[in-house]
């Protein structure tokens, strides 16, 4: 019998050791006993991090939706699979059973196939957090189409880039979306994006807000009438374990976003197994992850991981502050949520408000609290623990990435003793290493270094869509035979890990990864801007906020500064989305550069963080005099 459900610390250590000593046997047992395969694998794992090439469950056949839906029907057909909690609480929740979800996915699959979508085709999904989002994701998986979900807060330019990068032939969207008091014109954004996307043949439109939209003849079709006519059964398409399941874009420090490609087999096994253990999910629990399905957290821990375990998963359309700051806690009480998974930025924002917003509600159903996306600071951790968890619910600080597919370092609740701000121990099968800048592994405890992973795990992304070389260069070139995460970490005296943050030019703002380069490109497109550099600085709620240093073209220097700041942020909103807006913009005469012309961000980071006591050696700069001037005028 495999250890699918870990119940105590001794068992964790024992299973961990086994998973590291003989990973193939370990994962083979998990895969064999807990999933439905149409054909077994010939080989559990082949890998070579130099190419890099990673294959799990080679030549096995499956369909992930058969694992997430069909196999539950005999035992759980009337169990709620998805609880949909709408933006406006007055609208009332929807409870979608496994049987209904199966039927809706089948109908959607039939619609997609009728519209000409075939195995391997890319379908872009640009939808708010409504049930159709989960249904279309699963319908794509059922027919073997590769879904590319784009977070519905991205701008038309960002959407177009992602549609074109992987040649989507279809886009699925809605007329509009609700976010708190606001209504957003999603279809309008899609229309603008598609002016740049000649490859898109069909747009399927879900009605959500009922607003007036333009429908383009021959391209745009309302979804509901098609679903009404569709057959309610669709036989799954058999997929190879290594066939791509989806593409999800994440920011890199340079260049365009990276379309991370995840597999059907390994991803399923890894997300399901991590979900079960890290949330200690039991049959009748109600689990809620507040992320958006537009991010990896939503893919792995709203849709695939929970459904593969036959869980009840909550999908929330709205925001934590609407109609008031008690919304999260109201939902926990209303649906008797047992496991609650959110981001530190949301915790910090809510912790600022009156306790009354939490205390008004009965949160006694909670058993596990989770966080993800960025380091959690001590104050936020304690507030979460005391005020929300009443000191009763262990906090799982889960470290992972879009690239890792599932959680990598995390406590197992009721198993691993927790310490605030520590992600604690590697999950089963995960082999971390800390590296120094010379490329040597730092052994022992009480050390700090760059976080790498030494051995493949089933959930690792297999490539970057259309650019395998970039995949190698980004993740496997820095350290020989290791996957490099881009994060720094320390390992304390007992071997617990604490993630200390990015060591590259990715900045995490409110839990969203933002690369500096694309934002700088957007700023530089403004007609008054000559050059710019952005860095992160600490922010009470967002974790980090963005600080831009901007050199203006000479003739523009007389323009009103605040007007210009607004325009620059507008430019960023249009190119990327409002999440990438700058909190501070300082106009500077020059940027500190090395003699080879590289911007010294280290110096700018110090100025932005108001930490200028020790600037280090700046004498080697091309233009050291500019540093004092920037410091004198810092915001
Ligand atoms: C950061 C999100 C500290 C980290 C699942 C990582 C964290 C990046 C944590 C990936 C955590 C994620 N503690 N930092 N518990 N979780 N991060 O791709 O820098 O959106 O590399 O995946 O978020 O962000 P991504």
From TrEMBL:
**Keyword set for this entry?**
Acetylation, ATP-binding, Ligase, Nucleotide-binding
The chain positions of domain Acetyl-coenzyme A synthetase N-terminal read: 12-68
PROSITE patterns xref list? AMP_BINDING (PS00455)
Q: Which GO terms describe its molecular function?
A: acetate-CoA ligase activity; AMP binding; ATP binding
Q: What Pfam families has UniProt attached to this entry?
A: ACAS_N, AMP-binding, AMP-binding_C
Residue stretches making up the AMP-binding enzyme C-terminal domain: 519-598
Q: Where is the AMP-dependent synthetase/ligase domain?
A: 76-462
Report the EC code(s) recorded for this entry. 6.2.1.1
Keyword Acetylation attached = yes
Top EC class of this enzyme: ligase
Q: Does the keyword Nucleotide-binding apply?
A: yes
Output the GO biological process annotations, alphabetical, semicolon-separated: acetyl-CoA biosynthetic process from acetate
The family assignment reads: Belongs to the ATP-dependent AMP-binding enzyme family.
Protein name per its UniProtKB record: Acetate--CoA ligase
Protein encoded by which gene: acs
């Amino acid at each position: 019998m495999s250890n699918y459900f870990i119940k105590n610390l001794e068992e964790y250590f024992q299973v961990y050791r086994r998973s590291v000593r003989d990973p193939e046997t370990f994962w083979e047992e998990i895969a064999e006993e807990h999933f439905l395969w149409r054909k077994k694998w010939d080989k559990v794992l082949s890998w070579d991090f130099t190419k890099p090439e990673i294959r799990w469950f080679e030549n096995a056949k499956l369909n992930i939706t058969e694992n997430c839906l069909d196999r539950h029907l005999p035992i759980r057909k009337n169990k709620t699979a998805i609880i949909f909690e709408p933006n406006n609480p007055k609208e009332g929740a929807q409870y979608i059973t496994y049987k209904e979800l199966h039927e809706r996915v089948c109908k959607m699959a039939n619609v997609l196939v009728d519209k000409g979508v075939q195995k391997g085709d890319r379908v872009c999904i640009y939808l708010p957090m409504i049930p159709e989002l989960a249904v279309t994701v699963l319908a794509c998986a059922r027919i073997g189409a590769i879904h590319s979900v784009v977070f519905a807060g991205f701008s038309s330019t960002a959407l177009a880039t992602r549609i074109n990068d992987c040649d989507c032939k279809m886009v699925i969207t809605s007329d509009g979306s609700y976010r708190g008091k606001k209504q957003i014109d999603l279809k309008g954004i899609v229309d603008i994006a598609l002016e740049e996307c000649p490859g898109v043949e069909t747009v399927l439109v879900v009605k959500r807000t009922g607003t007036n939209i333009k429908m383009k003849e021959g391209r745009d079709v309302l979804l509901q009438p098609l679903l009404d006519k569709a057959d309610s059964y669709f036989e799954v398409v058999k997929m190879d374990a290594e066939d791509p399941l989806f593409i999800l874009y994440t920011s890199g420090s340079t260049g365009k976003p990276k379309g991370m490609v995840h597999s059907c087999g390994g991803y399923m096994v890894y997300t399901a197994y991590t979900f079960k253990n890290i949330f200690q999910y039991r049959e009748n629990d109600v689990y809620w992850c507040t992320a958006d399905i537009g991010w990896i957290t939503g893919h792995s821990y709203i849709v695939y991981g929970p459904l593969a375990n036959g869980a009840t998963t909550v999908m929330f359309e709205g925001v934590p502050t609407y109609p008031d700051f008690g919304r999260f806690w109201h939902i926990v009480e209303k649906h008797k949520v047992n496991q609650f998974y959110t981001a530190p930025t949301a915790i910090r924002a809510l912790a600022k408000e009156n306790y009354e917003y939490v205390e008004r509600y009965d949160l006694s159903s909670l058993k596990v609290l989770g966080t993800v996306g960025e380091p959690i600071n001590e104050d936020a951790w304690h507030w979460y623990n005391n005020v929300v968890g009443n000191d009763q619910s262990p906090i799982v600080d889960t470290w992972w990435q879009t690239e890792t597919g599932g959680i990598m370092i995390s406590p197992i609740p009721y198993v691993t003793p927790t310490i605030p701000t520590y992600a604690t121990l590697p999950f089963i099968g995960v082999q971390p290493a800390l590296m120094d800048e010379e490329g040597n592994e730092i052994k022992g405890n009480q050390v700090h270094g760059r976080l790498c992973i030494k051995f493949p795990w089933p959930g690792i992304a297999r490539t970057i869509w259309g650019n395998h070389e970039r995949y190698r260069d980004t993740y496997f070139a820095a350290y020989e035979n290791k996957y490099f995460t881009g994060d720094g970490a320390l390992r304390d005296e007992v071997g617990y890990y604490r993630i200390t943050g990015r060591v590259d030019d990715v900045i995490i703002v409110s839990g969203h990864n933002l690369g500096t380069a694309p934002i700088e490109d957007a700023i530089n497109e403004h007609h008054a801007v000559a050059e710019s550099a952005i860095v992160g600085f600490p922010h009470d709620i967002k974790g980090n906020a963005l600080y831009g240093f901007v050199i203006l073209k000479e003739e523009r220097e007389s323009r009103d500064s605040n007007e210009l700041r607004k325009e620059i942020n507008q430019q960023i909103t249009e190119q990327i989305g409002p999440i990438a807006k700058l909190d501070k913009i300082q106009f500077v005469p020059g940027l500190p550069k090395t003699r080879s012309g590289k911007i010294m961000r280290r110096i700018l980071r110090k100025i932005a963080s108001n930490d200028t006591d020790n600037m280090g050696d700046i004498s080697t700069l091309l233009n050291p005099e500019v540093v004092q001037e920037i410091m004198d005028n810092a915001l």
